[in-house]
Write a structure and sequence with these properties.
single chain; about 160 residues; alpha+beta; 2 helices; about 10% helix
Length: about 160
């Protein structure tokens, strides 16, 4: 399902500031992935993301951030894991990153630069960009190395509820 059908005034709203790029506003969808949203908000409330990097950028796919000290993983809220998550991985959707273990998500997230239906049902999508998609576009254009790490650091200066 497209993310616009989940937008409502009661959802948590966030502001993500990226040094040298600008601000991205997101809305989270607890009705789609309540445990993921709760985990993400706890990290934000504890300033976990401040000064972390967008450490993986793949143009025409996604930008990924939130890698930090190891945390306790959560159960992935997606079809492959037996949980209905109808939110599709379309441009602007935010989702939790993980390893091949479906219950390894903790703090890393990614924002879709382009539609990626092959991720639907396999990753916990839990919100979307409501303002600042052009910032995602700018970040997606940066030069990266052979491991998709940006040559120049892309720093998250703040991530907070608004």
């Amino acid at each position: 399902m497209q993310f616009t059908s989940y937008l409502n005034d009661n959802n948590p709203k966030l502001e993500l500031s990226v040094k040298g790029f600008g601000t991205i506003e997101l809305e989270l969808f607890p009705e789609v992935a309540p445990k993921t949203v709760e985990n993400f908000l706890n990290l934000i409330n504890n300033n976990f993301y401040e000064n972390l990097l967008f450490h993986r950028v793949i143009k025409n796919f996604m930008i990924q951030g939130g890698w930090g000290k190891p945390l306790t993983p959560i159960v992935g809220e997606f079809k492959e894991n037996g949980i209905d998550n109808p939110l599709i991985h379309s441009r602007g959707v935010i989702s939790m990153a993980r390893t091949s273990d479906p219950n390894s998500a903790s703090s890393q997230f990614f924002i879709m630069h382009k539609n990626s239906p092959h991720l639907d049902g396999a990753y916990a999508a839990f919100g979307a960009v409501t303002k600042g998609i052009e910032i995602v576009d700018l970040i997606a254009q940066v030069k990266t190395d052979y491991q998709d790490k940006p040559i120049d650091d892309i720093v998250i200066t703040s991530f907070k509820l608004i």
